[in-house]
Amino acid sequence: MRLDHQFLQSTLHTTPAHPIVMGSLVGPVPFKAVEDDGDTVTALPERLWEEHAVLIAALPSYTFVGMSNTKLCLYQGFWIYEGLVPAAAALQRRFAPRQSDVVVASLPKSGTTWLVALAFATAARHVHPPSAADHPLRRLNPHQCIPFLEGLFAVGHEGKLDALPSPRLMNTHMPLAMVPGAVPASGSAAAGGCKVVYVCREPKAMVVSLWHYLRRVYPELSLAETVDIACEGTMPYGTFWDHILGYWRAAAAAPESVLFQRYEEMLRDPDESVRSLARFVGMPFSAAEEAAGVVRGIVQLCSLDSLRGMEANRTGYMDPRVMFPREALFRKGVADDWRSHMTPEMAHRVDGVVADKFRGTDLTFP
């Protein structure tokens, strides 16, 4: 089997690698500054293309119902987009986090973009105050500010991460098992690893949001088919229950390494969610910042209405090869929208899977 390079090879550059010199900058800095520099990457060696092709050919696979050109492969128990299987393998072998790193993790359509924006605005607030007219989030999409780990590792571009000053922010949809270096096995920060912030969304709401997003490119995909995919465990990035429980158990075992947040709770009290995030990453807000309204400024800057109104989020695509429009990231941002779309039978089916798969845990959904 010959590996289709359309997803992977289209992003490769063949220029020699020259690291960006950030001088005395302190992170995080918008990743686009590194992403746009073509001299930071090299072409992936042909032997690695061959290894990828052999790996993918040996895996069980299926084509997404309603998305005839999207193929998923079963890799180490998780269904993953074919083009991202090399990323999963590379992350396990080569991901080397710094202790100051922060990885923002989630299943797709679980509040990812909002958390990415909040994390960047919080961690970068001393260099980029939320009130600043030239704040990166006022001219860039949140995902241009934080690198997408599997996108880089899939094509051998992870060297771009080395050009970023600490603390670095990163984003992933991968299950925790695919990013083993992020959380030390012992749960001790002294043993390595970094900080992981995970956002979890009520599964019915996540499924409906995923359906709305996917049908922007695949209009024939039905909600019933999306419910089937979720309940049968053939979602991209694996079963939603294994994905959620992987991070939830890590947070219970090592709360200093993993912060587990619920999207619905963030909606109810975004200010306290930002404070919790800042404390977790070791950058708590000072009394002076609180008095100056910095927390409220970050929440307002990163609100759905604010982000949706930015030019960078109204135009363009997340990835021109796949053609998901950026504006599709900003739909409603509310809880319980699933009630307007799911039939009672669909909701009962998802709830049944949740009751079964989360039995014996104290993890519940609003």
From TrEMBL:
GO MF term set: transferase activity
Protein name in UniProt: Sulfotransferase
Keyword vocabulary terms for this entry: Transferase
Zinc as UniProt keyword: no
Species: Urochloa decumbens
InterPro entries for this protein: P-loop_NTPase, Sulfotransferase_dom
Residue stretches making up the Sulfotransferase domain: 100-361
Any matching Pfam family: Sulfotransfer_1
Entry-linked PANTHER family: SULFOTRANSFERASE SULT (PTHR11783)
Domain of life: Eukaryota
EC number: 2.8.2.-
Similarity comment: Belongs to the sulfotransferase 1 family.
